[in-house]
Write a structure and sequence with these properties.
The complex is a heterotrimer of chains A (519), B (378) and C (333). Chain A has 3 domains: 7-238, P-loop containing nucleotide triphosphate hydrolases (Rossmann fold, 3-Layer(aba) Sandwich); 255-343 and 427-519, P-loop containing nucleotide triphosphate hydrolases (Rossmann fold, 3-Layer(aba) Sandwich), CATH 3.40.50; 354-425, no CATH class. Chain A contains 17 helices and 20 strands. Chain A has helices at 46-53, 76-81, 99-104, 115-129, 144-157, 174-189, 201-207, 230-238, 297-305, 334-339, 351-355, 362-370, 382-394, 411-424, 441-456, 468-474, 497-505, and strands at residues 7-16, 20-30, 35-39, 61-66, 69-71, 84-87, 162-166, 193-198, 210-215, 218-224, 255-266, 272-283, 286-290, 315-319, 326-328, 344-347, 429-433, 460-464, 477-482, 485-491. The longest helix of chain A is centred in the middle third of the chain and has 16 residues, at 174-189. In chain C, helix 7 (163-181) packs antiparallel against helix 12 (259-281). The chains are: A alpha/beta (519), B mainly alpha (378), C mainly alpha (333).
């Protein structure tokens, strides 16, 4: 390459605290006018590196060059001035503002009297690249895909020449992903440099020109996409040979465990979240739940766990594995469900905000499930302490000690603590939401293995996932949600990704999102 | 591309990063340095106002707490009462319930005691102390608890802003006291010693044992300190309070009835404030005014917070506050009233500013550029 | 009769309105400043000190210049409240200290300052009563439109106030327009709603927080000055301001963070607090030493009821700024 690279990192180092080194001596070029995939496992420092480019973080050491010139990026404003725009994984949008207000944020014009002007220019950008933005719509009314579009438009509006997209497809359906890729190709044709942070190898191969790989904070190398394969990229990313196949044991002894009938619920503003949902879950199988994020997955699991008030007529029957008698769960609190002898394990999406208490240590977190035992007014610390040691050893939790607050552990280890505790309750139903989100490959496989072990024990496993490849490889059946409704259940062994993707967005496969009578 | 600031700007001299792993001793060194720095600033202010030697002033302040046996006991009494209120607000704050209403809960507790002493004492039913004291104690605790539970009930059910609710309850309590002051004072607007003749309902040890009448208060509060420590650290309810305080979602997830915990914890908080009211009215003053709580409801919050909700650390933080208050009182006489009693509030606030400010240096560190900057530029 | 009632209600309302507008501007930046009562004390005492020094520097009070008599206390008040705002901001924004504790400490500090310097002034004048009076300054502050008296009920209701009254209403209006209509107001709201987003959009979160909080403090400080000069006729007696400060903070919730509503809200509260006394003039209610406490607790009870009702109705538009009470650090993960 003769051209000056669009971006050059030189000896970039960034540490959090004294223990976590997110980036170490990264020296890397990003070629101008290309689509570059920044590939790495979770925790490999991809996002941190890009955050330094976009002014969110400040490097401890090293320099950044843009088009050959050394720059000091000390704030997001500096990054904007340099034509760098980043679309973060957690969108940087103000919920109560409209599209236009979000775009107008931080611009130099004096009053919002210029809204018309902004709207015109937004329309221009939309026409050019093929976006669709409703200027008056409030962000809290938008779907994830709409929010992402708004973020991209906002960045382009500011004249960004270098766009960074952090895991842009994580929350999109295959169809939405295709649309996004088309837009990205349009932007490339317009001469923009695009960096996509991802760990989805298929997408890397599909869209990028070059792949830059980070591992444990260090730069491994850049390869042209044309010369890469899934296996070669994985090996570079993980640093060792990895078995990529997810095991799916045959179902041994399928027994009805949960029967969900006409389940419905509303949120606090009265909007319907779950609508007349009915399905069965069996012991000895893994039931996958697919759907674009916010389709009611959270409320579905919380309804079963006794955390979500439901509508009249909802019913969830639990069938006891020993006596085979059904019991109604709806209307019971978490505690009542527990007292009825139903062993329900639940690995929620928000690990530190719901499943665990971040500031407490492993022992205290183990105690969450067991502290009520006994009639003593004081807590028993011995049993949870033993359990903490057991979980630490068996699941190889990397922690300085069981008395370290779990917040200080890495994402993967936090999840091990949580899953370890839930499995220790010897459940008959186990629910896991986005159980591998943010985890590195090895930990993810550990989680799959643990779920399969539960399945073999005859537990009814319900697995909410976002990665369709994983869902299709792990689950026996997949229930596909669409806008709070159950759009059908497919066989995990025969269904295709496109089929599931279509069901996620189009109710009953005919494009109608209206209410229909189910036969 | 147009010229931009970022291209021409020099490297920033430093940037701030979060740190997660400061050793405990280092954190305490920072806190102690902050207190010392605060004392220096206070000293400068005192000199600026009085023109006198600050060390002499600090000596006077020291004497305010330790000069005579009487002053020492008064200091212990103040310490005990402030500590009692700090203990009272702690469970609520640990649960992240901003109970600014301790002042009102103390007053209501005191009022409960005063009502019993009035109605069942010399001027009323003339019950014997064996009967009167238990009734007084229970009434005081009940009054404080009720005053605390009202905002908790609304917080639990409708998430009503508890900070302002509890505050308003203080002002309502003050007016309630004003009403009773009027009906008991027959026009003079002070209640005066209740049951001055018979000492009915006085919660004190005999004078032979306890010269100044403060000993019982000190003992009770010392006991409460230990109990509160055990309650928060080892009891199931204490554990529930911690979980609710850290994350309501986690609490719900494991089946803790958050509403119940909020109401129950405020019941305890209010009841303990009631005890403080009881000790002040029945144990110390044998009278009641709107000033009985004396602002302890507010300072106690800071005492508790600065001690990071640990009852034993609170002894220290409460002592700092009481020491300054007694000291400012002493200065008042020593400086011909250039320093007055309200000056203590200024000193307390300055010390708190320094201590809460210093937490920054415990949680964050400032990184200066270590790399030598290339000097040559074309 | 109504005109006179209205007049007195307005007088009661203005301190609240200053405090409430100041707190709204502050809270819109995500800073929950519970130091407002302290700031009002400082605003009040700074003004009194300024007035006191000026009045005593004059050999003869008739030589006083109205300009200096008004501007010296005004500037002192603004400077005092500004310093309070800076202390709060430095601790919460730069040092990221807990906002509630900082606010409470600031109230302790401000009330302490007010009472301490009040005590010093009282000692200086060797007064028999524990108060200090700056009546000359107060008279300038209370000066009304000269033609107000000639216009009957209209004059009484709308023209018979000191200039600070109109300043309060104008500030509230301007704040409302600023927040709703200007780009800078939009940026400020973004800082309070979601500082990370504002930051990523190139808005200086620190600058906006500092500016909003300091300006908010100065506005609230004026409430203290108004109380001393207009409500108390220049008599500083070391009390009466803390409850106004707290009520002002409560009023913010009632007005759903809208300065325009604050005008109405403050007027309602002002009217409510004097209504019993007004009614007693016409023998509709009987206020004596026995019943007075119950009338005095009325505003607080109403505040409580308002808080409860507000919390029961959930509307997206009435919610506090999303990031209220949280400190922001860019590198937080």
């Amino acid at each position: 390459m003769e051209n000056t690279p669009a971006i050059r990192f030189e000896n970039i180092t960034k540490a959090f605290g004294t223990k976590v080194v997110a980036n170490k001596n990264v020296t890397m070029d990003i070629a101008s006018g290309e689509i570059v995939a920044l590939l790495g496992e979770n925790g490999s420092g991809k996002t941190t590196l890009m955050n330094m480019l976009s002014g969110i973080y400040r490097q401890d050491e090293g320099e950044i060059y843009i088009n050959g010139e050394e720059v000091q990026i000390t704030s997001p404003k500096d990054a904007y001035d340099l034509g760098i725009g980043m679309i973060h994984q957690h969108f940087k949008l103000v919920d109560v503002f409209t599209s236009i207000e979000n775009i107008a944020l931080g611009l130099d014009k004096k009053t919002t009297g210029a809204n018309k002007e902004i709207a015109d220019k937004v329309q221009e950008i939309c026409d050019k690249y093929g976006f669709d933005v409703d200027p008056k719509k409030k962000v809290y009314n938008m779907t994830v895909s709409e929010k992402q579009t708004l973020e991209i438009v906002k960045t382009l509006y500011r004249g960004a020449n270098i766009l960074i997209l952090d895991e842009p497809t994580a929350v999109l359906t295959p169809q939405e992903t295709e649309k996004l890729f088309a837009v990205i190709r349009n932007m490339k044709a317009d001469g923009k440099t695009i960096i996509i942070i991802t760990h989805k190898l298929n997408e890397v191969l599909e869209i990028s020109d070059h792949v830059a790989i980070l591992r444990k904070g260090e730069y491994i190398g850049t390869v042209p996409t044309s010369e890469a394969t899934v296996q070669s990229l994985t090996d570079m990313m993980v640093g060792e040979k990895v078995e990529l196949d997810i095991e799916r044991p045959e179902i041994q002894d399928k027994k009805l465990r949960l029967s969900v009938n006409h389940l419905g619920c509303k949120d606090k503003y009265g909007v319907t979240i779950l609508d007349d949902m009915s399905f069965d879950a069996y012991g000895g199988e893994i039931l996958g739940i697919a759907g674009i994020s916010g389709s009611g997955q959270k409320q579905l699991l919380e309804s079963i766990a006794g955390l979500q008030p439901t509508e009249q007529g909802s019913s969830i029957l639990y069938i006891d594995p020993e006596t085979n008698t059904p019991t109604e769960i709806i209307g019971k609190s978490v505690l009542q469900i527990k007292k009825m002898g139903i062993a329900l394990a639940f690995v929620p999406e928000d690990r530190l905000g719901m499943g665990l208490v971040g500031s407490m240590d492993m022992t205290d977190n183990m105690m969450l499930r067991s502290y009520r035992k006994g009639h003593n007014i004081f807590t028993d610390r011995k049993t949870p302490r033993d359990l903490a040691f057991k979980v630490k050893d068996e699941l190889e939790v990397a922690t300085p000690g069981i008395s370290t607050p779990v917040r200080k552990l890495s994402g993967g280890n936090v999840q091990k603590v949580l899953v370890g505790r839930e499995i220790a309750t010897e459940p008959t139903v186990m629910m896991a939401a986005y159980a591998v989100r943010g985890l590195d490959i090895n930990t993810s496989y550990t989680i799959y293995r643990l779920l399969n072990e539960q399945k073999k024990k005859g537990v009814a496993v319900i697995y909410v996932g976002e990665d369709l490849d994983v869902l299709l490889a792990l689950c026996d059946r997949i229930a596909v949600l669409c806008g709070g409704k159950l759009n059908g259940i497919v066989d995990g062994r025969t269904a295709t990704k496109e089929e599931v993707g279509m069901m996620m967005t189009h109710l009953h496969e005919n494009g109608q999102k209206e209410q229909e009578v189910q036969d | 591309m147009e010229k931009t600031k970022a291209k021409s700007a020099r490297e920033p001299l430093f940037h701030i990063v979060k740190r997660t792993d400061i050793p405990k001793w280092k954190a305490w060194v920072i806190r102690i340095l902050a207190v010392l720095a605060a004392l220096v600033v206070c000293g400068i202010i005192i000199v600026a106002l009085t023109g006198k030697n600050p060390f002499e002033m600090y000596k006077f302040m020291f004497e305010g707490s330790f000069k005579t046996e009487r002053k020492f006991w008064k200091m212990l009494q103040d310490l005990a009462m402030l500590l009692c209120v700090a203990l009272a607000v702690t469970p609520a704050f640990k649960m992240r319930f901003w109970n600014i209403g301790a002042e009102g809960q103390i007053l209501m507790g005191g009022l409960g005691a005063a009502i019993c002493m009035k109605l069942l004492g010399d001027d009323g039913a003339q019950l014997s102390n064996g009967l009167l004291l238990p009734i007084t104690i229970i009434t005081a605790i009940l009054f404080g608890a009720i005053w605390g539970v009202i905002p908790a009930f609304f917080k639990a059910n409708w998430n009503t802003n508890e900070t302002l609710f509890t505050l308003m309850m203080n002002y309502i309590a003050i007016q309630v006291i004003a009403y009773f002051t009027f009906i008991w004072s027959s026009g003079s607007n002070t209640v005066g010693k209740i049951n001055a003749e018979s000492h009915a309902g006085w919660l004190q040890l005999p004078r032979e044992v306890d010269k100044y009448g403060y000993l019982l208060n000190v003992i009770i509060v010392a006991l409460l300190t230990i109990l509160m420590y055990l309650y928060l650290k080892y009891s199931k309810q204490g554990y529930e309070i911690s979980v609710v305080g850290e994350s309501v979602n986690t609490a719900r997830y494991v089946g803790i009835n958050v509403k119940k915990v909020v109401v129950r914890t405020m019941l305890i908080s209010g009841a303990l404030c009631g005890v403080a009211g009881l000790l002040l009215v029945s144990g110390t003053d044998q009278s009641i005014t709107a000033e009985t709580a004396g602002g302890r409801g507010y300072t106690a919050i800071m005492v508790s917070w600065l001690a990071q909700f640990n009852p034993f650390y609170m002894i220290l933080t409460a002592f700092i506050v009481v020491f300054l208050q007694r000291g400012a009182d002493e200065l008042q006489t020593q400086t011909n009233r250039i320093i007055n009693a309200d000056f203590a509030d200024i000193l307390i606030a300055i010390i708190i500013f320094f201590i809460i400010g210093c937490e920054f240096f415990i949680n964050y560190s400032i990184k200066f550029r270590s790399r030598k900057k290339k000097e040559v530029e074309a | 009769m109504f005109a006179a009632f209205f007049h007195r209600a307005v007088l009661q309302a203005i301190s609240l309105l200053f405090g409430c507008t100041g707190e709204i501007v502050t809270e819109k930046s995500g800073n929950l400043n519970l130091g407002i009562p302290g700031i009002m004390y400082v605003g009040g005492i700074s003004g009194v000190i300024g007035a006191f020094l000026y009045e005593n520097s004059l050999p003869d009070k008739s030589e006083a210049s109205w300009f200096l008599a008004i501007f010296i206390p005004l500037l002192c008040c603004l400077a005092g409240s500004l310093i309070m705002g800076l202390i709060y901001c430095f601790l919460t924004t730069t040092l990221r200290a807990n906002q509630n504790v900082t606010g409470l400490a600031l109230t302790t500090f401000g009330v302490g300052l007010g009472k301490y310097f009040g005590g010093v002034l009282i000692k200086l004048v060797n007064a028999d009563v524990p108060s200090v009076t700056v009546s000359m300054t107060s008279n300038y502050y209370k000066a009304t439109f000269p033609f107000a008296d000639d216009l009957g009920w209209f004059g009484e209701m709308f023209l018979s106030y000191g200039f600070l009254t109109y300043v309060a209403i104008i500030i509230a209006f301007v704040a409302g327009i600023y927040l709703k209509r200007t780009r800078s107001g939009l940026n400020l709201r973004a800082v309070g709603e979601n500082p990370a987003t504002a930051d990523a959009a190139g808005i200086s979160v620190t600058k906006y927080k500092y500016l909003a909080t300091c300006i908010g403090s100065m506005i609230a400080g004026l409430g203290g000055l108004f109380y001393v000069m207009n409500n108390a006729s220049g008599v500083w007696s070391n009390n009466g301001l803390d409850n106004i400060g707290w009520l002002a903070i409560a009023l913010v919730i009632f007005t759903a963070w809208k300065p325009n509503f604050a005008i109405v809200g403050a007027l309602l509260f002002g009217g409510l607090s004097i209504a019993p006394y007004y009614l007693s003039l016409y023998d509709i209610v009987d206020i004596n030493l026995r019943t007075k406490p119950f009338f005095d607790m009325l505003p607080y009870i109403v505040t409580v009821i308002v808080l409860i009702i507000n919390s029961m109705r959930k509307k997206r538009e009435n919610q506090p700024p999303e990031a209220l009470g949280l400190s922001y650090f860019r590198e937080d993960r």
